Amino acid sequence: MNKLLADADICVKCGLCLPTCPTYTKTQNENESPRGRIALIQGYESGQLSDAKAVRAHIDNCLLCRECERVCPALVPYSRLIDNFRAQFQADNKPSFALSILKKVAHNKTAQHLAQSSLKLYQGTGLQKIARLLKLPSVLRLDKMERLLPSYNAPTTFAEHYPATTACKGTVGLFVGCMGALLDHETISAAITVLTAAGFNVAIPAQQSCCGALDVHSGDTATADKLATINIQAFANDSLTAIVTIASGCGSQLQEYAQAEFADQIMDISQFLVQVAGHLPFKPLAETVCLHTPCSLKNVMRAENGALQLLQRIPELHITKLPETIVCCGSAGSYMLEHSTMAQALLADVLDAAADTQARYLLSSNIGCTLHIQAGLQERGMTMEVLHPVVLCARQLH
């Protein structure tokens, strides 16, 4: 309680955070703003408020986009405050059926292999079309998750080491993430292609695990600490130039691990390539792309310019960024499963803006955002292809 109140008391209630907060912007409800949530925590922890359920509802509605931290003049550690408050109630948390499945898959490689086989069966036999026709995902309370499923592709087995294909500049560790390993093999392959072409050996430790973000933000610090220990040990290699990530949601969590020696090595792949890769032989591409910048990339990793600068190296490519007024797409890890109404409202703004660009591609540096936006585009009948920036770069390499 003392730690929570100490963090909360840093807030001077100036209100500069309000216009940056996605949930406040949508609801105009003070309780749905950072300032309001901090006041609720202060009221509950000091005993002035006793209705834990009502207070928790507003706290749990927070996306943790951390846009408020970016503009806060008092440097309130808002994310830490929210995570610590949620941790108090971890024993009482009852995750949805979909979230329980997601965590199981995220934490267990056997479960990931089973999920991969199930996806092949579900889509390859036509079961998905029948299930959707009969609205079975909704009946089973899995519709929020089922809509996110990408088209099945045969799984790729990745080696633990890939040598540089040009003059070697060093070795990088590649953090693939639990969802990347399961659903985004194209991005992993593209990362290997571009990094090795840039002159780096790529190490992919087989023992790496989930980053733990799902657990931290749901208050399960014990599980998050175990996962952190696994990943720190997996990448315990003094020869690594950096540990690069292909999902900013993972990267932002890894950068906040308690072990500074590990956390300081973490870099978003686009930012890494811009800073150290030098010239890459990209073929021209006379297309328009819409660039989406995930909250975690902008507000936590503070590497929002990396993807833009990397893409600018592709000749003839026209890059259109989403409006500054769009703060969050609504994905936010498991948020799109647990708070789908708000998630869909925020997604609608992204889709409207993306449609106006008439781009062929929408590029995003976080798999959660990618799956959420891709599902929204499909539901609207839009054919815009959603890719990680490094995938487009790999396609354009000579």
Give the strand content. Answer: 5-15%
- The best one-word shape is globular
Radius of gyration: 21 Å
**CATH class wording of the largest domain:** Alpha Beta
Task: Count structural domains.
Answer: 4
| Quaternary structure | single chain
Distance between the termini: 58 Å
- How do the strands of the widest beta sheet line up side by side? 1-3-2-4-5
**Which secondary-structure class do the elements indicate?**
alpha/beta
Q: Which whole number gives the mean pLDDT?
A: 94
Helix content bin: 40-55%
* Major beta sheet summary: 5 strands, mixed
Show unreliable segments: none
Number of strand elements = 9
CATH topology of the largest domain: Rossmann fold
- Name given to the CATH architecture of the largest domain: 3-Layer(aba) Sandwich
Number of helices: 24
Describe what this molecule looks like in 3D.
The protein has 398 residues and is an alpha/beta fold. The protein has 4 domains: 2-92, Orthogonal Bundle (Fumarate Reductase Iron-sulfur Protein, Chain B, domain 2); 97-146, no CATH class; 161-276, 3-Layer(aba) Sandwich (Rossmann fold), CATH 3.40.50; 288-395, Rossmann fold (3-Layer(aba) Sandwich), CATH 3.40.50. It has 24 helices and 9 strands. The protein has helices at 2-8, 22-27, 34-45, 52-60, 67-71, 78-87, 97-107, 109-124, 127-133, 136-139, 143-146, 178-183, 185-197, 213-216, 221-234, 248-254, 260-263, 269-276, 295-300, 305-311, 335-338, 340-357, 367-379, 389-395; strands spanning 161-162, 170-175, 200-203, 240-245, 266-268, 288-292, 318-321, 361-364, 385-387. It has a 5-stranded mixed sheet with strand order 1-3-2-4-5. It has a 4-stranded parallel sheet with strand order 7-6-8-9, sandwiched between helices. Helix 23 (367-379) links the parallel strand 8 and strand 9. Helix 3 packs antiparallel against helix 4 (52-60), helix 7 packs across helix 8 and helix 18 (269-276) crosses helix 20 (305-311). 45% of the residues are buried. The mean pLDDT is 94.
